[in-house]
Specification:
The protein is built from seven helices and two strands; from the N terminus they run αααββαααα. A two-stranded antiparallel sheet has the order 1-2. It starts with 5 loop residues before the first helix and ends in a 7-residue tail after the last helix. The longest helix has about 35 residues. It is mostly helical. Helix content is about 60%, strand content about 10%. Helix 1 crosses helix 3 and helix 6 packs antiparallel against helix 7.
Amino acid sequence: MRTNRTRYVLLGALTEGPKTGYEIRKDIEAGISHFWQESYGQIYPQLKALAAEGLAEVETSPETGRQRKVYRITEAGRRELAAWLAEPVQQEPQRNELLLKLIYGRSTTPAVLQGHVQSFRQSAAALKGALGALQSIIAGEPADHPDMAYWLMTLRLGEYIAEARLRWAEETLSQLETLAATNDSGGGADD
């Protein structure tokens, strides 16, 4: 049975303090979206479910003429989150279309694959830049923030991944350039 991890994303976000669904959505965009995607259409129904289960409390307050719902994690919610954190990590099957195209690359030209790898390299560079911006945000927090060590551990893995992707892309582009030169000189790929 697959675990609905959206609930744990939300419970984790609420450990940082009371938040609206909109604030949680913004936190996801600013923080974990580099390694965890969450469907925004799931946030509000899941918050409602957490409140119905007693894992979160909701407080409604009027703000600028409309009802604003602020969610707060309960002790039961903290226990639920702690129990999930103690469970083994569910490994997701890996799917990477770029690698799939490379493995069958003999059926196209190196130039086509170079375009794919260049796009991949641009994405890796963008990730590295986004992580640098996140590092700046984290650096603005107090050094004794209770989540600081965890943030830095998570950030560091992202940095390693971005750096590895960039190195791999450079090596692969170099190999594809060699293959293109070989093809141009008459040593073409099998059809």
